[in-house]
Design a protein that fits this description.
Blueprint (H helix, E strand, L loop, with lengths): L5 E5 L3 H12 L3 E6 L2 H7 L5 E4 L5 H6 L7 E4 L5 H13 L4 E5 L3 H9 L4 E3 L1 H14 L6 E3 L5 E6 L10 H4 L1 H5 L1 E8 L2 E3 L12 E7 H10 L4
Parallel strand pairs: 1-2, 1-4, 2-3, 4-5, 5-6
Antiparallel strand pairs: 7-8, 8-11, 9-10, 9-11
């Protein structure tokens, strides 16, 4: 089980609320705050602590335990000024990791300058992800490594791999990917160079998105 962390979520619109709900399912200690009482009340039974407050009020943030938070997510939507001020306050309070939601490229640059460790664009990123899934349905089996072009996911072996070892295949150079794990009829293990690939194996691999796409398309040719 992942280590339990205290996560402060500021802004409980659709994105912030969904984030809180998922964190609660993952057994994290969640503090959810917003200026709108209805949003706070909607999450009261799902998270550990909720509070109606103005997140640009430093004392109010201190009272809900901002200084003890391991992570803070500033999920404020349209109010860019409040988003920037809140991010700056949380950094001044010493929160170890502050993630902030941006609306525009300029907003993102300012958030970075006031100390946000990571800036995200939920709507943009989700739109791109949905488009990618239309064009590349296999992506549902893969996840992107944050901050890189690498994908990690599960796939079946190609026909020419079956009965050969990773060393025989010169796997890393031939396929521009790395086999991280093998699932063999429910038993998972880290492969060695002499591991023989079987037809029923599921390979957990990592590689660049364009190279993984080439891998998947090759199944149509076999």
């Amino acid at each position: 089980m992942a280590e339990k962390k205290m996560v402060l979520v500021v802004g409980l619109g659709r994105f912030g609320a969904a984030l809180c709900e998922r964190l609660a399912v993952l057994k994290q200690y969640v503090v959810a705050v917003d200026r709108v009482r209805a949003r706070v009340e909607a999450l009261a039974d799902d998270v550990d602590l909720t509070a109606q407050l103005d997140a640009t009020d430093e004392e109010a943030l201190i009272k809900v335990g901002a200084r003890e938070a391991d992570v803070a997510v500033v999920a404020i939507g349209e109010n860019t000024e409040a988003s920037i001020l809140t991010t700056a306050i949380l950094r001044e309070l010493g929160v170890p990791y502050v993630m902030a939601r941006a609306q525009t490229a300029l907003h993102a640059r300012v958030l970075a300058r006031v100390g946000a460790h990571r800036v995200i664009f939920p709507e943009r990123d989700m739109g791109m992800r949905v488009a990618d899934h239309f064009v590349f349905p296999w992506l549902s089996q893969f996840s992107q490594v944050p901050g890189s072009e690498l994908l990690v996911g599960k796939t079946a072996p190609r026909k020419e791999m079956v009965g050969k070892s990773l060393m025989d295949l010169n796997f890393r150079n031939e396929y521009n990917a790395v086999v991280l794990l093998v699932d063999r009829q429910g038993e998972q293990f880290i492969p060695r160079a002499d591991t023989i690939i079987e037809a029923t194996d599921q390979l957990f691999i990592s590689g660049r998105s364009d190279e993984i796409n080439e891998w998947i398309n090759s199944f149509k040719e076999n």
